[in-house]
From TrEMBL:
UniProt KW Transmembrane keyword: yes
Name listed for the protein in its UniProt record: Uncharacterized protein
Keyword tRNA processing on entry: no
Domain of life where this protein originates: Eukaryota
Species, as recorded: Dendroctonus ponderosae
Length: 81
């Protein structure tokens, strides 16, 4: 077998519609990435913060906190002990 029989000509490159097809492919990948990031942000970050705030304010006593700060002398309008 000679070298001419083994080699085949290369296919012609796609010149028309190349930008449109690459933009379409990129938009689809960006849409999937953004949707995934938004869902992860909601479930991991936002819901975690909501539960942390709910847990903090479940046991928070504002009068006890005020008395603690007043005794330290942090307020100018209230005398400290």
């Amino acid at each position: 077998m000679s070298a001419a029989e083994v080699t085949k000509p290369l296919p012609r490159p796609q010149l028309r519609g190349l930008l449109r097809s690459s933009i379409k492919r990129n938009l689809i990948s960006v849409a999937i990435t953004i949707t995934t990031a938004a869902v992860l942000m909601k479930f991991v970050h936002n819901d975690g913060r909501k539960t942390a705030y709910a847990e903090f304010y479940k046991n928070y006593d504002i009068d006890k906190e005020f008395e603690r700060m007043r005794k330290k002398g942090l307020f100018d309008s209230c005398p400290s002990d």
